[in-house]
Please model this.
Amino acid sequence: MAAKQDPAKLVRQARDLIEEFNRVVLDDAKDLSAPALSEAT
Model:
């Protein structure tokens, strides 16, 4: 069984990944089709 991780650390990692995802999507939003955006989310 995997060692239990600190919930606060997991939340920070999730926040960082969501912020990175948002930057990528917003930078390329005009080039994304609706199906591609739907698949990404």
Q: What stands out?
A: The mean pLDDT is 83. Residues 29 and 37 are 8 Å apart (CA to CA).
